[in-house]
Every structure is written in structure tokens, then in C-alpha cells.
């Protein structure tokens, strides 16, 4: 079910043709999500195998997507190279993520892992953006290219700059 919604979202960017489904399935942007979905499903029973599949995903597409991350349906990683998504990150439906984006915690303090971001539905994240710590990004928000988001972003608003400011 999730994978079919991912495929439908990714088809929107391709011109209409007989082979558009086949050509979409062969893209790195779809492969990165498909491999993440497979690793997530596998991880419920076989965490080591899921970790191996995650590494295959990273080698094949350049996307470092933790298999434990929850990514909603209809996600698009336009250019998955350099995208990093942490273990306990939650991303809503229909999110669009550009290349070089990092979504994760602020690191580890001893044995305590810092909180991870929660991304709403319909969020658009520009190239090179960093969303760090326990922030909440509201539905339909926009994160500008190269923004460093350390604060909550309300629904429908835009965050730009280093550190990010709400516009």
C-alpha cells in the first residue's frame, strides 16, 4: 500500500508515456524509498538483515535512511544523494525532500540519544537543509535550501537561513 502511494507520487514528475511506470521504478528517487520500505518491514523480525539492506540502499542510491525511521506514504526524495534520516525521525505523508538534506538528532550525550524531529505532511525541504533536534515541522511547511532548523516551524510557514527564521 505505501509503495503504491510512493509510486503514484513519483509518477507525477514524469511525462506521460507507455513506459513511464517502468522508467520511474528505475530511478534512484523511487529505489531509495522502495529499499527503505523493504528494510523497515524486514527490520521488524530481522534487524541485522534490515541494517544490511539499509547499507545496500546507501551504496546504491546515496541515501542514508535508517530503517527504523517512519516515512509516510507518497514521499519523494528527488535526488537522494546525501540525504540522511535518523532512526527515530517521523515524516508525514507527501513530503518532498531534495538532495543533501539531514534530518536527525543533535548527537549522543553519553547513553542518552537526543530527541529527533517530527515532520508533518506535505512538507517541502530544500537542498542542503538541516533539521536537527526535537523540533516539530507543521503540515505544508517549507524549509529553504541550506536552512539550519533548530526551532519549531508552524503549519504552512517557511523557515530560511542559518539559523532558520520563520517567514
TrEMBL record:
The keyword Repeat applies. One of its GO terms (cellular component) is cytoplasm. Keywords: Acyltransferase, Repeat, Transferase. InterPro entries: Hexapep, Hexapep_transf_CS, LbH_SAT, Ser_O-AcTrfase, Trimer_LpxA-like_sf. It comes from the Bacteria. It catalyses: L-serine + acetyl-CoA = O-acetyl-L-serine + CoA. The keyword ATP-binding does not apply. Signal peptide: none annotated. Belongs to the transferase hexapeptide repeat family. This is Serine acetyltransferase. The lineage of its organism: Bacteria, Bacillati, Actinomycetota, Actinomycetes, Micrococcales.
Amino acid at each position: 500500500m505505501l509503495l503504491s502511494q510512493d509510486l503514484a507520487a513519483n509518477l507525477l514528475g514524469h511525462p506521460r508515456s507507455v513506459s513511464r511506470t517502468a522508467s520511474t521504478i528505475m530511478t534512484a528517487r523511487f529505489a531509495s524509498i522502495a529499499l527503505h520500505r523493504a528494510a523497515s518491514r524486514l527490520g521488524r523480525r530481522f534487524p541485522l538483515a534490515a541494517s544490511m539492506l539499509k547499507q545496500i540502499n546507501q551504496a546504491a542510491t546515496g541515501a542514508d535512511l535508517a530503517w527504523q525511521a517512519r516515512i509516510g506514504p507518497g514521499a519523494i526524495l528527488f535526488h537522494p544523494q546525501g540525504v540522511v534520516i535518523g532512526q527515530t525521525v517521523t515524516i508525514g505523508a507527501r513530503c518532498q525532500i531534495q538532495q543533501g538534506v539531514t534530518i536527525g538528532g543533535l548527537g549522543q550525550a553519553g547513553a542518552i540519544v537526543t530527541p529527533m524531529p517530527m515532520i508533518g505532511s506535505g512538507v517541502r525541504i530544500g537542498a542542503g537543509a538541516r533539521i536537527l533536534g526535537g523540533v516539530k515541522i507543521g503540515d505544508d511547511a517549507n524549509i529553504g535550501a541550506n536552512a539550519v532548523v533548530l526551532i519549531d516551524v508552524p503549519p504552512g510557514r517557511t523557515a530560511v537561513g542559518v539559523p532558520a527564521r520563520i517567514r
